[in-house]
């Protein structure tokens, strides 16, 4: 879990807060879109939250979080990521491979925003960071 926390912290310091649709001024902002289970799952989601909390504390980043709904589809994830990017969050991190199709759709619309995806390397782009850990190393 420490690796996921570190990854978010490092990604969060990678760029200034900006989006193509305009954003609030007033510092860096980062967002996490959780996978099913959400915060409190004692797994990936909690590790991502720990990274966001660390970025808030150590890097003075304002964090945003978005929880999934049971049974949601890709369109819901697209909407969630779009809203987070429009709000000026940079980076926007999708927790889990289920966000791959949504990031593939949304990232090109916000080229100045970095999108991160945890546990997936299938989606690539100039503004996409793949955060994949070696399974044999555990958390």
UniProtKB/TrEMBL annotation:
Residues covered by the ABC transporter substrate-binding protein PnrA-like domain: 35-139
Keywords attached to this entry: Cell membrane, Lipoprotein, Membrane, Signal
GO cellular component: plasma membrane
Signal sequence segment: none
InterPro entries associated with the record: BMP_lipoprotein, PnrA-like
Keyword Secreted belongs to the record: no
Gene3D superfamilies to which the protein is assigned, alphabetical: 3.40.50.2300
Superkingdom classification of source: Bacteria
Compartments it resides in: Cell membrane
Protein name: BMP family ABC transporter substrate-binding protein
